[in-house]
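WARN  no MSA supplied for this record, continuing single-sequence
INFO  ligand: arginine
INFO  echoing inputs
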Amino acid sequence: MQDFKVAVATCLKEHIEELTLEEITALIEVPPNKEMGDFAFPCFKLAKVFRKAPNMIAAELSEKIEPKGVISNVTPLGGYINFFVNKSQLAETVIKDVLTKKEKYGHSDLGKDKTIVIDFSSPNIAKPFHIGHIRTTVIGNALYKIYDSQGYNTVRINHLGDYGTQFGKLIVAFKLWGNKEAVEANPIPELLKLYIQFHDEAEKHPEMEDEARAWFTKLENGDKEAKELWQWFRDESLKEFARVYDLLDIEFDSYNGESFYSDKMDRVIDIIKDKGLLKESQGTNIVDLDEYNMPPALITKNDGSTLYMTRDLAAALYRKENYDFEKCIYVVGSQQSLHFQQLFKVLELVGFEWAKDMIHVPFGMVALEEGTMSTRKGRVVFLEDVLKQAIEKTKETMLAKNPNALNVDEIAKQVGVGAVVFQELSNSRIKDYTFSWSRTLSFEGETGPYVQYTHARCCAVLRKAEEEVTTDINYELLNDVDSAEVLKVIASFNKTILNAMRKNEPHIITRFVLDLAQAFNKFYHDNSILVEDTELRKARLALVAVTRQALENGLKLLGMQAPERM
Ligand code: ARG
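INFO  complex generated
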């Protein structure tokens, strides 16, 4: 795809030796109003270099630059040089490109032969899969789609929380009060109940904690009964998680969770020891990080048992050896920022040069309107309930609009789930936010359903036209401002994906589909498409077709569906 910004930068470069092409490209802006031009170059930075006033530089450079190719006009305005893009050339380039590449439009093979590991979702077994997990799940999945679209071999890992002393507690509780049938009928709520009951009872009978520890040690030593119970808790939990992943249409390449590393920790502890980094402190083993203004990383506890950190150290090493990643990304809430800083620091101190390739992608917390979420107090919103309610509500809205709507269940699922996904992604990652049913399910404003609806609208026009879309059209007919706005957004798709990828920010893609939907709806509002004039109709249909394709590709990157009817 000919990138228009690059074309502008190339023109400028011929006359500016003092800046590199990249520096020039980075300076190019989009003017506040279209009458000024499609792109603008501010000359303020050059003032020092050229020892001249910015408006003088703008005037002189504009004189020198010959409009050619996609650039149709160059004019100075104050300290800026404004560039106008040749709109029919823009139309031709974009339409031909989109209609040949289709669902691959925007994609590239930049990441060929390189591997990216993404650790996301990673819930804890026997605990609710609640609304707090939605962000890691959908952000991780969108990042997977984004890297995958640029040709990276992308590995999705669900680092399940399936190990640790809490399983000793659960075994004790189950043996005391558990009921197999009840757990099988309703696994996570039942297991959670047992866990809560354990904590209540253990307050009165602290010796239960010792018993729990003893059971966890048995589990670690491969005791048959302990292992069978644990395996069963894990299987039942995974069945519940699978229902949510199904609704979201998310898959993983590996479910190697914390337990997978139970036999891989000794090695990493030895490596740390050999480097002289392991320190004893009150019976525990730590890596001192005082020098880096961090609390020590705890490697083993008093009783010799390992921790979350130990398993993450083993996991990092395993991933490097097994996948030879270029980057290993952890999509985990910002409450764990310190944990990841410590983890990466320990890897660096051990001397793994690839420690620099580990990236924590944090995000803000989800709060409930009625106060903070608390698993122990049972104040949680189950993710499955949120998705199901979203689907139900969408179905009601659809049937209210059209009682004879076709395929309602399937479409309500695509739109309802899409609404939740889009709302999670369109919030800037790092901000905390309060979960609200009404906001999530509102179909007005900058929402997923709005974008999907625009896509369905394009499909409806194309269906109604009943004629083939071709690239053999008169591109001069698309040089109006409304069409050019749509085409300019589409033209920026690949750059936008790369930007989202470099920043690990899927919300940049939500902005892209919203901008495209808005530009298209303006065009649609102001222009008839299925006009008598054959040439004009053909040209406008091509515009509709490429908009539809770009919206579909954008939605897919977000992990959403693009229904043809709504
Ligand atoms: N299970 C953890 C939690 O729910 C998240 C795990 C994230 N991944 C990791 N490698 N530490 O908080």
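Residues 213 and 485 are 64 Å apart (CA to CA).
INFO  checksum written, moving to next record
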